[in-house]
Design goal:
This protein is mainly alpha-helical. Helix content is 60%, strand content 0%.
Length: 213
């Protein structure tokens, strides 16, 4: 059975107390860097992405910089990141689209963002929220895991269903911050492997916690 809206918000308040300064941990200078970093982060840790972009963002500053180099060179620059071949192709195609359609600027509309090569709903949500201050909830592996463990949604729900459930129960003004706090809770506390159940304030409300204890 899913949590009531009131109970869920109470639990989010507790998570907020645990991680009051939760924020996007992908290093970036502007919305364009953020877009590239989020694209690179698919099936990859933020820590590794930041390691790669430390050099990448020194070499590339604009969409024109990315399309100017041979594809093989860009692949070499991000080789340590998973799916680097596909991501390199998407980055160059994305940058070409930005040049041709948006004067090399990152669009601020969801539909335009999701139409860019390699950009899905999660990436668009992160860019909208972090870069442009548009309320959004990006459901990554941490948000999905925590939401199901704490019964914010149904176990069988898809990523989109998890997002819709969270949006229905959380006030829009809390969407962006709740997204980051759920990520921090999942990344640093309610981990996929060896979650910190013994110190968890929700151990009596969580099936995983009860099993672990």
């Amino acid at each position: 059975m899913m949590r009531s809206k009131q109970k869920m918000l109470e639990m989010l308040d507790t998570i907020q107390e645990m991680f009051p300064n939760a924020k996007c941990e992908l290093n970036h200078r502007n919305e364009f860097d953020l877009l590239i970093a989020v694209l690179l982060s698919a099936q990859c840790t933020d820590k590794l992405v930041n390691k790669v972009t430390a050099a990448l963002f020194q070499k590339y500053h604009t969409p024109e910089d990315y399309v100017r180099v041979p594809l093989e060179e860009l692949q070499t620059d991000i080789r340590s990141i998973g799916l680097y071949r596909n991501k390199s192709k998407n980055i160059q195609a994305l940058c070409q689209t930005l040049i041709e359609k948006y004067n090399s600027e990152v669009p601020q509309e969801r539909e335009a963002l999701e139409a860019l090569p390699g950009v899905g709903r999660k990436t668009a949500n992160v860019v909208l929220s972090v870069a442009f201050g548009v309320p959004a909830i990006a459901v990554d592996t941490h948000v999905q895991r925590v939401s199901k463990r704490l019964k914010f949604c149904r176990q069988k729900d898809s990523v989109r269903q998890v997002e819709e459930t969270l949006m229905q129960k959380i006030p829009p003004e809390r969407w962006s911050q709740a997204h980051h706090q759920l990520i921090f809770f999942g990344r640093y506390f309610c981990k996929a492997q060896r979650p910190n159940c013994t110190e968890c304030p929700f151990q009596n409300d969580c099936t995983t916690g009860k099993k672990t204890l």
